[in-house]
From TrEMBL:
<dbReference type="GO" id="GO:0004491">
    <property type="term" value="F:methylmalonate-semialdehyde dehydrogenase (acylating, NAD) activity"/>
</dbReference>
<keyword id="KW-0520">NAD</keyword>
<keyword id="KW-0560">Oxidoreductase</keyword>
<feature type="domain" description="Aldehyde dehydrogenase">
    <location>
        <begin position="13"/>
        <end position="479"/>
    </location>
</feature>
<dbReference type="GO" id="GO:0006574">
    <property type="term" value="P:L-valine catabolic process"/>
</dbReference>
<dbReference type="InterPro" id="IPR016161">
    <property type="entry name" value="Ald_DH/histidinol_DH"/>
</dbReference>
<dbReference type="InterPro" id="IPR016162">
    <property type="entry name" value="Ald_DH_N"/>
</dbReference>
<dbReference type="Pfam" id="PF00171">
    <property type="entry name" value="Aldedh"/>
</dbReference>
<dbReference type="InterPro" id="IPR016163">
    <property type="entry name" value="Ald_DH_C"/>
</dbReference>
<dbReference type="InterPro" id="IPR016160">
    <property type="entry name" value="Ald_DH_CS_CYS"/>
</dbReference>
<dbReference type="GO" id="GO:0006210">
    <property type="term" value="P:thymine catabolic process"/>
</dbReference>
<dbReference type="InterPro" id="IPR010061">
    <property type="entry name" value="MeMal-semiAld_DH"/>
</dbReference>
<protein>
    <recommendedName>
        <fullName>methylmalonate-semialdehyde dehydrogenase (CoA acylating)</fullName>
        <ecNumber>1.2.1.27</ecNumber>
    </recommendedName>
</protein>
<dbReference type="InterPro" id="IPR015590">
    <property type="entry name" value="Aldehyde_DH_dom"/>
</dbReference>
Length: 499
């Protein structure tokens, strides 16, 4: 059995805790590797190593640090097929989607090549008599990222690229379900010229996370995962004085106005609802058609498209629409929620629970499901299902439709499909959700903008990547300077003002 350890100080390191977790091939249901779960002592050693390497890296000028990112981008492109294959093998998503996962991270690395510009401070000449004032953004020291299973390439890169380009040393604790790609990324960073010890990948579960949260050297924690863990990480990290930004789960609504192009809206819902088997924090899981005739037309268009979805292993070719769920537990949980929806009185229009594929009977596959007549009191409406299940909640008018995502506890993404500019503008302005699409079902901002949800989808300050990524992993120091020729005689007892 293949054993996956850690990557510390620029080298592969075996786990010594004696604890391991199984890593599955979700398409076959087989255990394909075992990943080491770090103990507190192993995490402490990795942090000490990072702390020793960080000052020299911070002292390396930002243009040289940026060149490492430049080379890293080249290497990601060189190894794209290899990375995508490793990613699909452990996660289950299709190869084109796995490449998208790598490329969305690569784009953040590209953005970080601009670190010298992004880290430039501010300068005020003559802020007072003979006084100049300047501010600079300095790295925090050793910082950490804790990431989920569903984007094992993109989300680690959202975290470590800005942190490292800004001069920090980084401890990455990726998901234990698909740990291979994060280690491959760390190997590529070393090949790109990153000094050993600046990027460390420590695999593990709750013990490793708690060791990060309680450690006194680590200055900041960026987390992405489910909401209960995001909230836990945020409270414990901030209680020990760290900077924290923790992004959680979602329930993304797409409103379909009566004037929308129904074919476009249905296609958008199919891709956004079922792509990656619905295991995306920006997946659309609730469709809100406005008016009964819009709802009927939408259901009529969606039903045959869902029944025709191509489901299969990543090895079955690029025209597969989506693959298996990540684990047997995830599959059982999603099927259980579908059962719950039926019990609650929602109408299951398409039932994909019995999907099975010859030769892959033990894989974690299920077909697409479609619920109609879902109401806001149902568990399937309140809960993030994180599977290939779309719920239709019918709204009588725009105000009722708008109120659904506004009142939901999650606030990650949302979309509206309409041809009416006034309605779209009103929606974008009033909605209390972090990322909004207008005729765009999955409005994931590009690398030079920032990504972040509101309400229970995000805890803490600042978003991920873009300029916020640099702000989160740096702090501002402001210097006020006056040279001897500007000094006046005598002590000053009252606070200087510009009066
Ligand atoms: P998860 O919360 O189970 O795990 C996330 C991380 O937390 C992993 O590294 C895991 O090892 C660790 N962890 C798990 N249980 C823990 C515990 N009890 N104590 C401490 N650490 C623990 O999430 P997941 O299943 O890997 O990912 C799916 C979730 O992530 C979904 O809810 C999805 O919406 C969310 N997500 C959010 C975003 C976003 O930007 N808002 C992006 C991607 C995924």
């Amino acid at each position: 059995m293949q054993k996956i350890g850690h990557f510390i100080g620029g080298k592969h390191v075996d786990g010594t805790s004696g604890r391991f977790a199984d890593v599955y091939n979700p398409a076959t249901g087989e255990v394909q590797a075992q990943v080491a779960l770090a103990s507190q002592q192993e995490m402490d050693a990795a942090i000490a190593n990072a702390a020793a390497a960080q000052p020299a890296w911070a002292a390396t000028n930002p243009q040289r640090r940026a060149r490492v990112m430049m080379k890293f981008v080249d290497l990601l492109n060189r190894d794209m097929d290899k990375l995508a294959e490793a990613l699909s093998r452990e996660h289950g998503k299709t190869l084109p989607d796995a490449k998208g996962d790598v490329i969305r991270g690569l784009e953040v690395a590209e953005f970080c090549i601009g670190a010298p510009h992004l880290l430039k401070g501010e300068f005020s000449e003559g802020a007072g008599p003979g006084i100049d004032m300047y501010s600079m953004r300095q790295p925090l020291g050793v910082v950490a990222g804790i990431t989920p299973f569903n984007f094992p390439a993109m989300i680690p890169m959202w975290k470590f690229c800005p942190a490292i380009a800004a001069g920090n040393a980084f401890i990455l604790k990726p998901s234990e379900r698909d740990p291979s790609v994060p280690i491959m990324l760390a190997e590529l960073m070393i090949e790109a010229g990153l000094p050993a010890g600046i990027l460390n990948v420590v695999n593990g579960d709750k013990s490793a996370v708690d060791a990060i949260l309680d450690d006194e050297t680590i200055q900041a924690v960026g987390f992405v995962g489910s909401t209960p863990i995001a909230q836990y990480v945020y409270s414990r990290a901030t209680a020990s004085g760290k900077r924290a930004q923790c992004f959680g789960g979602a329930k993304n609504h797409m409103i379909i106005m009566p004037d929308a192009d129904m074919d476009q809206a249905a296609d958008a819902l199919i891709g956004a609802g079922y792509g990656a088997a619905g295991e995306r924090c920006m997946a659309v899981s609730v469709a809100v058609p406005v008016g009964e005739s819009t709802a009927d037309a939408l259901i009529e268009k969606l039903t045959p498209k869902i029944e025709a979805l191509k489901i299969g292993p990543y090895t079955a070719g690029n025209d597969v629409d989506f693959g298996p769920l990540v684990t047997r537990e995830a599959l059982a949980r999603v099927k259980g929620l579908v059962e719950q929806g039926i019990k609650e009185g929602a109408k299951l229009v398409v039932d994909g629970r019995d999907f099975s594929m010859q030769g892959y009977e033990d894989g974690f596959f299920m077909g697409g499901c479609l619920f109609d007549n879902v109401t806001r009191d149902m568990d399937i409406y309140k809960t993030e299902i994180f599977g290939p299940v779309l719920s239709v909640v019918r709204a009588k008018d725009y105000e009722e439709a708008l109120d659904l995502p506004m009142s939901h506890e999650y606030g990650n993404g949302t979309a509206i499909f309409t041809r009416d500019g006034d309605t779209a503008r009103d929606f974008a302005s009033r909605i209390n959700i972090g990322m909004v699409g207008i005729n765009v079902p999955i409005p994931v901002p590009l690398a030079y903008h920032t990504f972040g949800g509101w309400k229970k989808s995000g805890f803490g300050d600042l978003n991920q990547h873009g300029s916020d990524g640099f702000k989160f992993y740096t702090r501002t120091k402001t210097v006020t300077s006056r040279w001897p020729s500007g000094l006046k005689d005598g002590a000053e007892f009252s606070i200087p003002t510009m009066k």
